[in-house]
Amino acid sequence: MSSQPLAGKVALITGASKGIGAATALELSSLGAKVVINYSSDSTPADDLVKKIGSDKAIAVKANAGSVPEIERLVKTTVDTFGKIDILIPNAGILPMKDLEHTSEDDFQKIMDLNVKGPYFLVQKAAPHMSKGSHIILLSTSLTAASTVMPGYLLYLTSKGAIEQMTRVLAKDLGRKGILVNAIAPGPTGTDLFFKGKSEEMLKMIASGNPFNRLGTPEDIARATSFLASDASGWVNGQILRVNGGMTIG
């Protein structure tokens, strides 16, 4: 098997300067893909990632992944630079802890803009530039399949439930054009965003809920994503791949 199975492919990843997005950019580039690293505000991590990958193989593009005009500009920049899009990963998202009582209309609008509207319209704008055999990989969470969930995840899981249904129906829609649509649903993963505000005791408790007694790593998620981005997944469509070490089953 080729060590560069994604050679000649172009990947566009939103929210790609840190965490799972950055690990995915590195993983796909190591397999031969050229990558577009989208970020929302701080250019330094994105620029550092471009240097690590190589400026001939990666570019960084600032854009609000929840704004349709900026999504259009992001897609145009990708196509103007690399000519096409083979792999689309709407990774950007936020995780506010809000139960029903403490959710404001503004809270609802912000998360729906970035977590739902953004991926929806990114797919719409990118699809015309994607050919048969291309891959779209949306981001959900294993918590949508968990039997015990804290009320504070209500707003976040509302958005990710939409992503999972979007995945299933887009697979039927874009499958007619030969474009494969799947979703990755990570379990607890050790990113800066995940660690924020959690004590060492809490992190150990979360890890103990996994058969492997550890958190996932961004690299765990990136490797699973690379499978869905490759020709090896050519008969996988409309699926939610739960990458969590067995934390949830099904």
Features:
250 residues, alpha/beta, Rossmann fold, 8 helices, 7 strands, 14% strand
If you had to describe this structure to a student in words, what would you say it looks like?
The chain is an alpha/beta fold and 250 residues long. The protein has one domain (10-243): NAD(P)-binding Rossmann-like Domain (Rossmann fold), CATH 3.40.50. Helices cover 42% and strands 14% of the residues. It has a 7-stranded parallel sheet with strand order 3-2-1-4-5-6-7, with helices on both faces. Helix 5 (154-175) links the parallel strand 5 (135-139) and strand 6 (180-186). The longest helix is centred in the middle third of the chain and has 22 residues, at 105-126. InterPro entries: NAD(P)-bd_dom_sf (IPR036291), SDR_fam (IPR002347). This is NAD(P)-binding protein. Belongs to the short-chain dehydrogenases/reductases (SDR) family. It comes from Lojkania enalia.
- What number of structural domains do the residues give? 1
- Report the mean per-residue pLDDT as an integer: 96
CATH architecture: 3-Layer(aba) Sandwich
Count the strands? 7
Radius of gyration: 17 Å
| Element string (H = helix, E = strand) | EHEHEHEHEHEHHHE
Task: Kindly state the percentage of residues in helix.
Answer: 40-55%
Cα-to-Cα separation, first versus last residue? 30 Å
Largest sheet: 7 strands, parallel
Low-confidence stretches: none
CATH topological fold name: Rossmann fold
Organism: Lojkania enalia
GO molecular function: oxidoreductase activity, acting on CH-OH group of donors
InterPro entries: NAD(P)-bd_dom_sf, SDR_fam
Protein name: NAD(P)-binding protein
